[in-house]
Amino acid sequence: MDFFGIGLPEIIFILLIAFVLFGPKRIVEISRTAGNVMRNLSKDASDIQEKLNEELEGEKPGGHGTVDRRSDQAKP
Fold first, then answer.
1. Does residue 42 register a pLDDT over 60?
2. pLDDT tens-digit map of 13-40
3. Terminal-residue alpha carbon distance, the chain
4. Could you give the number of structural domains in the chain?
5. Distance separating alpha carbons of residues 73 and 33, to the nearest angstrom
6. How does pLDDT run across 43-66, given as a tens digit for each residue?
7. Would you say residue 48 lies in a domain?
8. By the 8 A CB rule, do 27 and 18 touch?
9. How far is CA 9 from CA 20, 31, 68, in A?
10. Residue 32 lies in domain
11. Cα–Cα distance measured from residue 9 to residue 18, given in angstroms and rounded to the nearest whole number
12. In this structure, is residue 1 part of a structural domain?
């Protein structure tokens, strides 16, 4: 497993140092806060991407605000 160029032994070492520095109760708080931040960032990024896609669809020929003439044609 390689996460940002850091292997599993390095991640374990960093977690052990954090455990010693902050203690078990503070680690839980930090983890919870980090999870909330990541969830909010992910949600915000999704919202921005969705709005950007909506704007780009509006600029395409045949996008929002245009009439699809093919649906008006008679079917055989």
1. yes
2. 988 898 898 888 888 898 899 899 999 9
3. 59
4. 1
5. 57
6. 999 999 999 999 888 877 655 555
7. yes
8. yes
9. 17, 20, 58
10. 23-59
11. 14
12. no
